[in-house]
Design a protein that fits this description.
Helix content is about 70%, strand content about 0%. With about 200 residues, it is mainly α. The chain is elongated, with a radius of gyration of 20 Å. The mean pLDDT is about 90.
Length: about 200
């Protein structure tokens, strides 16, 4: 029996996800320059010819990962710039981040890959969108902290320093999770939020 258009699309979507996951693993572990389309296809368990039905080049595939990361950061920027309570916005993102970090997916390797692309390049194609979104995210976080301070819900101190410490903490947790796996004792969102809350306020 011939497959329906819906079945064909479902199969294509599944293959695209396998290619994406394989690319994330190889780029993160071996570096952009050392990976080619043949190795990604082999890691994904498909033929080399098949992979080109989804991405014409390695650069295009990598750019799609950068676009995915940029879109994710853009969503966080929108959350932080929204009209809601600053502490609630920070807690919502923190909880989502820790949930992703504790999951079984490729969040850790994807995060590390984008971090490498942003800080080191490593021969990867231009990541202007990633740099732009990262700058926007940091600025949005600083503004959110300042808004929380003005409203009395966030502790006093340099908003720039608090934002830097926050993201350094998240980066460090990713590194620990990568090194220790399930042996890594991830903190609760409440523990992380202690960075922002006034003394005696458990949020």
């Amino acid at each position: 029996m011939p497959r329906s258009p819906e079945q064909h699309e479902a199969m294509r979507a599944a293959t695209r996800e396998r290619v994406r996951s394989a690319a994330v693993r190889l780029f993160a572990r071996q570096g952009y320059a050392a990976v080619n389309m043949r190795s990604i296809a082999a890691e994904a368990g498909i033929s080399t010819g098949s992979i080109y039905r989804h991405h014409a080049t390695k650069e295009e595939l990598f750019d799609s990962l950068v676009a995915e990361a940029a879109a994710g950061m853009g969503a966080v920027v929108d959350l932080f710039r929204g009209p809601g309570d600053p502490v609630d916005a920070l807690r919502a993102f923190t909880e989502e981040f820790l949930s992703d970090l504790s999951g079984d997916g490729d969040f850790v390797e994807f995060f590390q890959l984008m971090h490498q692309a942003f800080t080191q390049a490593n021969g990867a194609p231009a990541t202007g969108a990633l740099v732009e979104r990262n700058t926007e995210l940091l600025a949005a976080t600083v503004a959110l902290v300042e808004r929380g301070q003005a409203g009395g819900s966030v502790r006093d101190g340099s908003a720039d320093e608090l934002a830097s410490c926050y993201f350094a903490l998240l980066d460090g947790l990713v590194s620990m999770r990568s090194a220790l796996g399930e042996r890594c004792a991830l903190p609760s969102a409440s523990t992380v939020m202690g960075l922002f809350l006034r003394e005696g306020d458990d949020g």
